[in-house]
Each structure stands twice: as structure tokens, then as C-alpha cells.
From TrEMBL:
The lineage of its organism: Bacteria, Pseudomonadati, Pseudomonadota, Alphaproteobacteria, Rhodobacterales. Keywords: Membrane, Transmembrane, Transmembrane helix. The chain crosses the membrane at residues 12-33. It holds the Pfam family FixH. It comes from the Bacteria. It comes from Yoonia maricola. This is Nitrogen fixation protein FixH. InterPro entries: FixH (IPR008620).
Length: 150
């Protein structure tokens, strides 16, 4: 014996279907907000007023800066335009994943005479090193280095 498909059945299907869609959207929105690492700048307009001058000053240093992780050791090398190592003041360094601040760490860098090194613990995935330095002439230098941990 077959049952008759009524309006109540159709209402149940519609409420159930849209209920699933809304539940999934709310879950994804909540997770996106809960894992957002935060604000890079409080007022982007104020930061934008000096962006070109800051970038020009950083580019005028002619530094070649690289970051690499090998065997649990983070190495940051700063070379000037002649290829000589530069010892700059590290004012801020944060190693973390791009989408989650729970595993952020501040590497304790040591100057080796040719580069900065720091022991780090990382899991596999995409990581960023956000580095802020001050050149010997007082110029502020900021860069973000993508690092893939294997």
C-alpha cells in the first residue's frame, strides 16, 4: 500500500533541507570568526599614508632576506647589496600558521656571525614568519616569509 504525499510531507522536506543549509552556514561562519588571527592594523587608512615611504626606505637598504627551516632550526639570513651578512636588531618575530594563532611562537634568535638561528617546533603545513627588524641606520624593515613545514 502506498502512502499519499501531502503538503505536510513537502513542508517537512523544505524545513529539513533549508535547516541543514542554515546549520552548515552558521557553523562555517562561527569557525571562520573563531579562528581569525586578528587585525594587522587598527586603522588601515593611517597605515596607508606612509606605506610608499616605508616601502621605499626598505627597498633602499637593498637587503636580500631569506628564511628557512632545516632540522627544527629556523635560519634567517640578511645580506646587503655586496653579499655581506647584516646584523640588524630583531624587534619582533612571530612564527605561526596563517589561519590559526593558537600555535604562534616567538623564536629566540641567536646571531651566529652570518645569520640568525632559533630552534623551533612545527607541525606539517603552511606557516608564516612575520619579521620586523631595525637596520643599523634606524630604518624599519618588515616582511612576511611563507614557510612550508614538511
Amino acid at each position: 500500500m502506498t502512502r499519499e504525499f501531502t503538503g505536510w510531507h513537502m513542508l517537512g522536506l523544505m524545513v529539513g533541507g533549508f535547516g541543514i543549509i542554515i546549520a552548515v552556514n552558521l557553523t562555517l561562519a562561527w569557525n571562520a570568526i573563531a579562528t581569525f588571527p586578528g587585525v594587522e592594523a587598527r586603522n588601515s587608512y593611517v597605515v596607508s599614508q606612509t606605506f610608499e615611504a616605508d616601502r621605499a626606505a626598505q627597498n633602499a637598504l637593498h637587503w636580500d632576506v631569506s628564511a628557512d627551516i632545516t632540522g627544527g632550526v629556523l635560519t634567517v639570513t640578511i645580506l646587503d647589496h655586496m653579499g655581506a651578512p647584516v646584523q640588524a636588531e630583531v624587534t619582533r618575530a612571530i612564527l605561526g600558521q596563517a589561519t590559526n594563532v593558537n600555535m604562534d611562537s616567538t623564536p629566540a634568535f641567536t646571531w651566529t656571525g652570518s645569520s640568525y638561528t632559533a630552534p623551533v617546533t612545527m607541525t606539517e603545513g603552511y606557516w608564516n614568519l612575520r619579521l620586523e627588524l631595525i637596520a643599523p641606520d634606524g630604518t624599519k624593515f618588515r616582511r612576511r616569509f611563507p614557510i612550508t613545514a614538511k
